[in-house]
Amino acid sequence: MADLTTVGTPEDPAYIEDHDNYFDVILKGDLSAIERLADVRMPSSGSYKAVYNPGGPGNNPTGSLDLSTPPPGPFTVASSDHTIAITNDLNGSLVATYVETGAPVMRDPFSGQPIGTLLGAAVIDTVTGATIWCYQDPNNTIFYASFAAASAGATNLAGGLQTTTAIDLLNTTSIAAGTNTATLSGSISREASLNSTLRFYTVLDSAGTVVDPLISGGTLRPTDGARYRAAALSSANLVSTTGSSIATSNGATVAFSFSADGAKLYAPVLSLANGSDSWFAFGAATSDGLEHLTRFSAHVFGCEDLKGGGDRDFDDLIVRFSVAQSAT
């Protein structure tokens, strides 16, 4: 049994994350027995543990099951007690497929869809006509999908966003402290004429408090204005590992990956190349007092790069990120 859908259906991030989607439950039996299977129950309560989508935090996610309080990542919703009807697909017509062959494939930051150039058909089912296509992402990583891949162009959103939402900080607190024990990676796209660079700095809490490098034991909050901005961008707080300063050209999407210390929180800051301003994840810290970053979904945020709020489309830079423990 497998979690499949009709060929050509665009897949959501949870489905793409499941690299073995053909084999969810394997049963042994003769054809007549298999044909009589009608449904599968997932108790998920009492003495039965809940089931989580791949990539989640195991049995201890934060957030509510109804998503009124979102979990920290896109693949963390626990199953509730329910029954799933089985669709008999013994003729092989439900063949939605996604396969990564090696390194993670670059994703469109906004939609989460894999980005790739079509190389041709890899597998053609001569009975149903279903086709699995071979793609190559911008970093030359090969992957296979039965649905169309996204392009490497930047997402262009409508302007006039009225309200913003606090973004997810890059959280490595579940990873043991030590030099470069966490890998922060993802993709960014830019739909803006201004050149800018995305960087990251260490914060002490979700409110954005930073260590004051000029006063032993001192801290600064976003409401401290210019002093806070200087402290956040100081060498004492700014992440400086290879790849941690990220930029791309207008209309393009690129991948990023860099190492950082575990057991910390990191906040993004978008600095304009002309040196006029840096936009922080905390509106109180910005020179115009406005929010320049907003959350689109779990681990996805967008940036507005113009002082005064600009056109408020928040697609001047769109970022999708993930946090993982570095290989040892």
Task: Describe what you observe in this structure.
This protein has 3 helices and 17 strands. The strands form 5 sheets. It has a 5-stranded antiparallel beta sheet, with no helix packed on it. A 4-stranded antiparallel beta sheet has the order 3-6-5-4, with no helix packed on it. The mean pLDDT is 85. With 328 residues, it is mainly beta. A hairpin with a 7-residue loop joins strand 10 (210-211) and strand 11 (219-220). It has a domain at 170-325. 5% of the residues lie in helices and 27% in strands. It has helices at residues 13-17, 31-35, 226-232; strands at residues 39-42, 82-85, 98-100, 117-124, 131-136, 142-145, 170-171, 182-189, 196-203, 210-211, 219-220, 253-260, 265-272, 278-280, 293-297, 300-303, 317-325.
